[in-house]
Design brief:
- Helix content is about 40%, strand content about 15%.
- It is globular, with a radius of gyration of 21 Å.
- Helix 6 links the parallel strand 4 and strand 5.
- By secondary structure, it is of the alpha/beta class.
- Helix 2 runs parallel beside helix 3, helix 4 packs across helix 5 and helix 11 crosses helix 13.
C-alpha cells in the first residue's frame, strides 16, 4: 500500500469553516496524544508530596486495578477497603499530574463505553447537539472523564451538573480534575469545597482529593512566551511549510474568525497542522473573544502544536483586569499553555 503523503504548505485558518458531526465529536472524546500511553505505572509520585501517592492508590482502586491486600495469615481475611463513590474529583496546581492520572483511569478501566474530554468539550457538545440529545448519547456509558472542570460560568456548571446527575443515576462513573493556579493564596484550600457547593445536588457522589506538588515542567507561571521578529517569523514559517502544513494568520483576524466557528469545531480547524503561526499579537480587549481564544488554545495544546508569533508575547494577551476577574483560572491555564507551546 502506498503511504499517504504528508500535507505541506501554508493555510490561513481565517479561510476555513470546518464542519463536524455529533458522531465525530464523540469519537474525539479520548485522551490527547501526549496521554495516549499514560498509566498508573508511568505516573511518578513525588515523595516530597505524599498526596500524589495517596491519590494514585485511591484512583487505582477506583479503576479496579489496585493490588489486593496481603493476608496476615492463612485464615485471615484481607482488609476491606473504604467504599468507593461513583465519582472522584482531583484538585491541584498546574503540572502535578492530574491529567496523567485521569488518562490512567480511562486506560485502566476495562469497560465497553468510556469517554475522555475537557469540560469545554462536553459543554460544546451540549451546545451543538442540545441537552436531551447529549443525555441520550451518553446514557449507559460506563465512565466519563472530565478534565479541567470549570466553575466560573454558572450556566455551564448547571448544565453539566444536570447531565452528570442523570448519568450517575443510570450507572455511569465519573472522574474529574480542575486546576488551582500556583501562588494563588488560599484558592487551592477551598477549591474542593467550591466544587461540592456548585454541584450540591450530587456532591455526595464524589470523593474529592487534593494533589499537591510543583509543576513537573519546572516553568514559572510568570515566564514569558517566545516571540519572533518579522524576518525570523517569515523564515520559520516558510521552512516548516516544506515539511508539514502550517497556518499563518493575523492575530486580530483569527480572534475575530473564532467567533464564527462553534468551539466544538476548533479541533477540526487545526486538523492536519504541524505548526500555528500568529502575526502581530496584541492584548485582547473583549472578554468573549478572550474566552474563545482560551478554548482554541486548549485544542492547540492538546494537539501538541508549536506556536510561532510576532508582536506582543502571548502570555500578555490577557490584561490585568481580565486576570483579576472571575475567569482568572481559565486565563492562567491558557498562559501556562501558551508559554509551553511557544518554547517547543
Amino acid at each position: 500500500m502506498t503511504p499517504t503523503a504528508t500535507r505541506t504548505g501554508i493555510v490561513h485558518l481565517t479561510d476555513l469553516t470546518p464542519q463536524i458531526t455529533g458522531a465525530e465529536m464523540v469519537a474525539s472524546l479520548v485522551p490527547p496524544p501526549q496521554f495516549t500511553d499514560a498509566t498508573f505505572e508511568s505516573y511518578r509520585a513525588d515523595p516530597a508530596f505524599p498526596s500524589q501517592q495517596e491519590a494514585k492508590t485511591t484512583l487505582m482502586a477506583f479503576s479496579g486495578v489496585a493490588a489486593p491486600e496481603a493476608r496476615g495469615g492463612f485464615f485471615r481475611r484481607p482488609k476491606k477497603g473504604p467504599e468507593l463513590k461513583p465519582g472522584v474529583y482531583l484538585d491541584g496546581g498546574f503540572g502535578v499530574g492530574k491529567t496523567h492520572l485521569l488518562a490512567a483511569i480511562y486506560h485502566a478501566m476495562q469497560v465497553r463505553r468510556k469517554y475522555f474530554g475537557s469540560f469545554i468539550e462536553y459543554t460544546a457538545l451540549v451546545g451543538a447537539l442540545g441537552y436531551k440529545n447529549t443525555v441520550d448519547l451518553f446514557r449507559g456509558a460506563d465512565l466519563l472523564c472530565i478534565d479541567e472542570f470549570e466553575l466560573d460560568d454558572p450556566g455551564d456548571t448547571m448544565v453539566m451538573t444536570r447531565l452528570l446527575a442523570e448519568l450517575v443515576s443510570s450507572g455511569t462513573r465519573l472522574a474529574a480534575t480542575s486546576n488551582t493556579p500556583p501562588n494563588a493564596l488560599g484558592e487551592g484550600r477551598f477549591a474542593a469545597q467550591d466544587f461540592l457547593r456548585e454541584i450540591h445536588a450530587m456532591a455526595a457522589s464524589f470523593q474529592t482529593m487534593r494533589i499537591d506538588g510543583t509543576d513537573y515542567r519546572h516553568r514559572a507561571l510568570d515566564g514569558h512566551a517566545a516571540v519572533l521578529g518579522a524576518p525570523e517569523y517569515e523564515s520559520t514559517i516558510a521552512d516548516a511549510a516544506t515539511r508539514g502544513l502550517v497556518s499563518d494568520d493575523g492575530f486580530a483576524q483569527l480572534v475575530a474568525h473564532l467567533a464564527k466557528v462553534h468551539p466544538s469545531r476548533y479541533i477540526r480547524l487545526i486538523d492536519g497542522l504541524s505548526m500555528i503561526g500568529l502575526r502581530d499579537v496584541a492584548p485582547l480587549t473583549d472578554q468573549s473573544a478572550a474566552l474563545r481564544f482560551v478554548a482554541f488554545i486548549d485544542r492547540v495544546y492538546d494537539a501538541e502544536l508549536p506556536i510561532r508569533a510576532t508582536g506582543e508575547t502571548l502570555d500578555l494577551v490577557f490584561p490585568e483586569e481580565m486576570l483579576a476577574g472571575g475567569y482568572r483560572k481559565k486565563y492562567l491555564r491558557a498562559i501556562s499553555r501558551l508559554v509551553a507551546s511557544t518554547l517547543d
